[in-house]
Amino acid sequence: MAQRIPISTPRSGRLNRRHFVAGSALAAAAIGSARTPSALAQDAVEVTWTSWGNTGEVANLKNFTDEYNAAQAAVVAKYNPIPTDGYDAKLLTQLSGGTAPDLFYAGDGQVSTYVKNAVVADLTDLLAGPTSKSKPDQFAGDLWGPARTADERLFGVPVDCNPLVLWYNRKLLQEAGVTELPADMYEAGTWNWEAFQAMLDAVTEAGKRGFVLGDWWALRYSWVTNNGGAIYDGGQFVANQDPKSMEAFQWLADNIAAEKIAFSGSLPEGQGDDAMFMSGQLGFVSMGRWGLPLFRQNKNLDCDIVPYPTNTGNKIEPSGVAVAYWMMNAKAANPEQAFDFYTHFVSPEGQQGRLDTGGNAVPSIVGVEEVVTADDLPDHRQYFLDARDVGYGPLAEEAGTPGLSDKINDAFSKLWLDGGDLQAALDGIATAANDAIKANAG
User: Fold this and answer.
1) How many domains does the chain contain in total?
2) Of 247, 283, 338, 408, which is most buried by a Cβ count within 10 Å?
3) Quick one: angle between helices 55-71 and 348-355, nearest 10?
4) What stretch of H or E contains 205?
5) Of the candidates 155, 52, 162, which has an alpha carbon nearest to the alpha carbon of residue 112?
6) CA-closest candidate to residue 74, choices 110, 101, 47
7) Which of 296-300, 408-412, 417-421 comes out lowest in average pLDDT?
8) Which residues of 36-69 are buried (b: 16+ CB within 10 A; e: fewer)?
9) Where does residue 33 fall: left (phi above 0), alpha (psi -120 to 50 degrees), or beta otherwise?
10) Tell me: the pLDDT tens digits for 295-325?
11) Which pLDDT tens digit goes with each residue over 34-83?
């Protein structure tokens, strides 16, 4: 995790990770008319599935499901969405009680719990097998996160994805005196931290906000990896010892203290970075393609995208990618038929069908990049694919340890809000993380 439309945050502090991944996981296109399941052969096997989603997304996914049902007679896929609020709790209750659907979406924070509790199926052999339309080597980047265990077993695949980039307000930057825009600098190979810092300085001196740092792993760690730092190594949290990681965290802390970067947890209630960006009060916002449908509607917003600036001398470095995972119930009554719908859903054909007019996600599978490039916005939309191909999903050490992500988010939130000794804070995070990882492994 990984945003649904409309984009919003539940409060100005903790950013709900599903607000980053849900648009990715649920982008879907209305695909023509279709026969209903009742019109199919009566001996077809029923496969049930669920997801979160708003009204429009649910309608689109129902259309997609009906299209699948109309195209073949062996399986009837039945879609029963669960409201976003309370989704995780309800699904866990269903899994514990034996009433869960055959297939379902899982946010990155829930995957490790499902795997540890053995309530999801090991899909390794099915994904590599002859009936698979979504072979593991077809997926781009390193998006597996907690869905791939240390022994290389696969319990899910990324439904689609949302690589993080920086959206920037061209008009605001130019009014602040910026003469060379970020995408131009990126093409010239000069888009680095020094250039970004100069723009933050100019924007804040003009009375606007430069950038908002959200309370989420991808937004935090992308700065570390764009500085050449390491967060985990050998299954251990090492960012408190790695000089490049410490430099990145110190840079964030210094900019937050200087009010060049605002921490989302310090913003007034109801004031989100998306709304600030839309109203011309924020120079940069870090989002995936999920921002496109909302920004497209604002005719007064002149914006574009650029990859994260680097501090390594390289033009592009890995940044975080928001994903949700597509999983199968370990107790699915008909796993063969369930997998038929499963693999179609995330195949090149399936992802193109769901994303072609949705506009708010990037395919996680290679071969249907035109879903992104054929759009007319943003100008440098190819950067979404560039960021995907070098990016990384949720870190397996962290997301693969139940409850650890929340503990680390809380610790970083306290650090950004209260300040204090950076080294001591990171040492405390390292101890908590490594103790939790060890306990989980044992």
Assistant:
1) 2
2) 283
3) 140
4) helix 193-205
5) 155
6) 47
7) 296-300
8) ebeebeeebeebbbbbbbbeebbebbbbbbbbbb
9) beta
10) 998 999 999 999 999 999 999 999 999 999 9
11) 334 444 456 899 999 999 987 777 887 899 999 999 999 999 999 999 99
> Residues 263, 349: one domain?
no
Of 306, 338, 367, the last residue of a domain is 306
Domain of 181? Answer: 164-306
Distance CA 263, CA 409 (A): 12
Which ranges of 227-272 would DSSP assign to H, the alpha helix? 243-257
| Count of C-beta atoms within a 10 Å radius of residue 311 | 21
Decide: helix, strand or coil at residue 215: coil
Cα–Cα distance for residue pair 170/174, rounded to 1 Å: 6
Mapping DSSP to helix (H, G, I), strand (E, B) and coil, where does residue 396 land?
helix
Strands 162-163 and 321-322: antiparallel
In angstroms, how far is CA 129 from the centroid of its own chain? 28
Phi/psi of residue 262, nearest 5 degrees:
-100, 135
d(C-alpha 276, C-alpha 291), whole Å: 13
